[in-house]
Amino acid sequence: MSWTSVILLALLSLFLVLSLSPRADSAAVSGSTGSAKNPKGPLKKIFMKEADASNFFRRRSRRGVKSRDEINAEQRQILAADERRREFHEEKRNEFENYAEEESDEQDERSRESTEQWREFHYDGMYPPQEYNRRSI
Fold this sequence. Notes:
This protein is mostly helical and 137 residues long. 70% of the residues lie in helices and 0% in strands. The protein has helices at 3-20, 34-37, 42-46, 50-59, 68-122, 130-133. 0% of the residues are buried.
């Protein structure tokens, strides 16, 4: 017997034992909790009665007028999304500005070093160097 068939047999026997066990029904959540039926406080605003829930979409057509609370909630969501988008783009802009500044600094450093190397190589021992004081004819 291969190891896959052993594992399959063990899982099947475990499933059979658990399904036939008299304690298997005790794992379900009992329906006698009164707090889920009658919510209090902020939960009352979230959950609505079953009759209201079934009539919600029938009562409100696609072009129906929205309540003031719905309009305010949508505006809060839009403003929050705009703020997140603005922060994201500001962060990206700052990252790019930092990157561009570092890149420019590195380029300036490289050009300064190459200029110094060129001057050292072409220095003729006279001060000030004659090559720079010559006038082009």
